[in-house]
Amino acid sequence: MENFFKFKERGTNLRTEVLAGVVTFMTMAYIIFVNPGILSAAFGEGAVGAAWIPALATATTLGAALMCICMGVFANRPLALASGMGLNAVVAFSIILGAGVPWQVGMSVIFVEGLVILVLVMTGLRESIMNAIPLDLKRAIGVGIGLFITFIGLVDGKMVVGDPNTLVKLGDFTQPAVWVTLIGLVAIVAFMALKIKGDILWGIVVATVAALILKVTSFPTGNLIAMPDFRTFLAPFQTPAGTDSIALFQVFTPTLLLFVFAVMLTDFFDTMGTVISVGEQAGFVEKDGKVPGIRNILAVDSAAAAVGGLFGASSITTYIESAAGVAEGGRTGLTAIVTGVLFALCAFFSPVIAMVGGSLPITAGALIVVGFLMMSSVKDIPWGNFEEAFPAFLVIVGIPLTYNISYGIGLGFISYVIIKVFHGKTKDIHWLMWIVAAAFVVSFILPAIQKLVG
After folding, report:
1. Nearest to 387 by CA among 345, 353, 416
2. Cα 200 to chain center, whole Å?
3. Average pLDDT for consecutive 10-residue bins of the chain (454 residues)?
4. Are 230 and 58 in contact (CB under 8 A)?
């Protein structure tokens, strides 16, 4: 095991990797409950949609388990995967409900998108695009995602709430959820200051105890074991009710193919940003910004998107919460495998996991701290060089303020090309950057295109 995962080479050990896997899982566990809830809205209203939650929970947990294990075995990196937030909302509300297609067809869009990206990986084009991106933009992506997940933690923990006049404001400190977040955050900071191994995990444990005392969560009642429900599996090859062909064949219409393109862009660059930012923290990004073994990472991630559509779990993608495990010392694929095994167990014990993963304030403190840890590379951006710094700035502010990783990256890429053109330095622009920037322009105006094609 030590030789396979290269423990000594990467300065880690079995105990650290297992602990890191548990921490990564704890910060990702909310997806087990959030994803089925979002997707079920597209399966029907009220009790009709709720009846699909057990099947969607099975797809979510087993899909994440399979792809985490694949990442650990084939790429040997501490990157965990699960159904992507944001992408699941696109599938439910934009594709299935918005386009008025059966849920199996919506999942087929994701299945096709994953296969397309996998082809790009196999031909080397996806890796070439990542290597063509300027180093300072790569650094900015990590910083922007750090701010993004800190903001998510503050929102999940009710420390920041919406306001109709100022958009956001400070949360209500009379609410128990706020205190659970603060207790968890202070505990993690204290454990870090005391150099206690597993500081983030122990902080989550403290937050869990606080949540129980303050009745933000509760011990599970009723049956603790729920058998898996496989009704959504092989969704693209099912024949939806009221149709006479399998769902996969119904994807090839102008509107749905545009959705394939839009989801592909989001999936493509969300993963790129996640791999770079987590890789910077884990120390496997080289000085020139390249990631050794990136093709294996991207191949697993691309296959994960297709598996997500195949299982009916929406697109499965590499998770930024992997940074939590890296912060605990995770450096090898064993971290991802441990996370995958825990996801697999959740297919049977979801009522128990609901106590922690189903209560967002419990893990909010961990997200806030991880966001801080990802800010370190901001010092390496040359802020005195406008050509390099302004596109990086747009990435950093664009990701959290648009609440979308891809949109922030797109703003930076487009501005980079424009600024270089105005400075007469078109030779500095890699030909792939032209294509990617153009693709982002198309994605930004995609709603208008969709309206034109009906």
Report:
1. 416
2. 19
3. 89 93 87 83 81 88 97 96 86 87 96 93 78 83 85 89 92 94 95 83 87 84 80 95 91 85 77 85 80 90 96 94 90 96 88 60 85 85 94 93 82 94 92 86 80 72
4. yes
393 in a structural domain: no
Host domain of residue 128: 2-378
Rounded to whole angstroms, the Cα distance separating 7 from 75 reads 14
Nearest-5° Cα angle at 301, 391 to 19:
95
Contacts of 142 (CB under 8 A, 6+ apart): 273, 276, 277, 280, 281, 374, 377
Which pLDDT belongs to residue 358? 53
Q: Is residue 384, in this structure, part of any structural domain at all?
A: no
- List the beta strands (DSSP E) in 238-337: 316-318
- Residue 4 buriedness (CB in 10 A; 0-12 / 13-18 / 19+): exposed
The verdict on residue 162 lying in a domain is yes
pLDDT score, position 357: 52
Domain count, the chain: 1
Spell 121-146 as b/e; 16+ CB within 10 A means b: beeeebbebbbebbbbbbbbbbbbbb
Query: Would residue 410 count as lying in a domain?
Result: no
Closest CA to 433 of 270, 425, 259: 425
CA distance 377 to 140: 8
Q: What is the pTM of this model?
A: 0.74
Q: Match 């309206």 to its residue by tokens.
A: 451
- The whole-number pLDDT of residue 283 equals 86
